[in-house]
Amino acid sequence: MPTQALLNHLAKDIKHLARELGFSACGISGIDLGEHPAYLEKWLAAGLHGDMQWMENNLDKRRDPSLLEAGTQAIISVRLDYLPPETQAVKILGSADKAYVSRYALGRDYHKLIRKRLSKLAEQINQKIAATPELKAAFPEFTSRAFTDSAPVLERGIAQQAGLGWIGKNCMLITPKAGSWFFLGELYVSLPLPADQPFIKDHCGACTACHVACPTQAFVADGVLDARRCISYLTIELKGSIPEALRPLMGNRIYGCDDCQLVCPWTRFSPTTKETDFHPRHQLDSSDLIDLFNWDEATFLKNTQGSPIRRTGYISWLRNLAVALGNAPASNTIIEALTAKQDYPDPIVQEHVAWALARHKEIN
Fold it and tell me: Checking CA distances to 88, which of 30, 251, 271, 333 falls within 20 to 30 Å?
């Protein structure tokens, strides 16, 4: 059997193996990322990335995957659904005394889980090559490297090139059969695997539900997000003071924001995850703001162990909760909780607690 035919067969096997490992979908792209690098550079030049200066680094490696991992000839892109069952997202958003945590962060951190499975997939690919003399002779030194939401990798662009979906007006990768409630991962490989057809058609049509629903009006154009106004950026990436004008618009969202996905018509097709690791932990899907605000740092570190929330840090956690408490209906309990932390030994916490207390004073 010619080598190309063997590579075609191997590509089919890889997709089957990915499914067996629990991935929801798998596609393959080449290393030409089309228009996506140019889009990123234009977005960065406009300053829409805010304080995320790290996004300006290693642009050459973002443009050319073979510079990030030498020898890369193809990229295996995978999808893993994360939406837990019974999320009550809309109900929690409508309960001002409850804390809203982005649905992806309710369970365990996805990074290690996806990288571990991608590494297992790489092992299985290597075994397939070793068991096929012609492939082994043609590709004696198979190398690979796994990524998920890490390193200078254009994940959504790669997934679109691999046929997994289109990038919607909300900047999310959307697939007709699963919406956008999923993680992405990549395996860079030193094999010239046949690429799938890129997902070209945009199925957003005339819909602008995501733009209308955005609490802070962070979308400046179709598929263009001003991160400086995005609640996910404000609550996770930004480490300083949240602009005062945006604080009232954040409501009770203390870690991330899902509004642009909640209103997307395509997410009605989203399946719930089969991964119990992504199910809510420590009742983070229905906790009271005050209860979370009263966590001391030791409790925060204990309860966020193995969670993506850990990366935001305790100071930002208190900052975000102070803003949410400032937006909640006034009560003696809330005033007491805020007052107890008005002298917390950090200027960021002090500033946002003072804002929350002043806000309740103004309202009343």
Answer: 333
Ligand-binding site membership of 26 (annotated): no
* Radius of gyration of the chain from its Cα atoms, rounded to whole angstroms: 22
The pLDDT value recorded for residue 86 is: 81
CB 24 within 8 A of CB 81: yes
Residue found by looking up tokens 């998920």 in the block: 148
Single out the catalytic residue among 64, 97, 149, 288. Answer: 149
- Residue 114, pLDDT > 90, answer yes
Q: Give the list of residues 6+ apart from residue 358 with CB closer than 8 angstroms, or none.
A: none
259 has catalytic annotation: no
* Per-residue model confidence (pLDDT) at position 2: 65
The residue whose two tokens read 């805010």 is 50
- The SS3 of residue 286 is coil
Q: Is the dihedral of CA 85, 266, 188, 133 positive or negative?
A: positive
Q: 308, 211, 203: which is closest to 261 by C-alpha?
A: 211
Please write the tens of the pLDDT for every residue from 126-141. Answer: 999 999 999 999 999 9
Cα first-last separation, the chain = 79
| Residue 80: CA count within 13 A, CB half-sphere | 27
Q: What is the pLDDT of the chain when averaged over all its residues?
A: 96
Average of pLDDT values for 158-166? 98
Q: What is the pLDDT of residue 192?
A: 97
CA distance 132 to 336: 70
Average pLDDT value for residue range 177-205: 96
| Residue ranges with strand state E in 287-360 | none
Query: Has 228 been labeled as part of a binding site?
Result: no
149 is in an annotated binding site: yes
For 247, the 3-state DSSP assignment is helix
CA–CA gap between residue 328 and residue 322 (Å, rounded): 10
Largest CA distance in the chain: 79
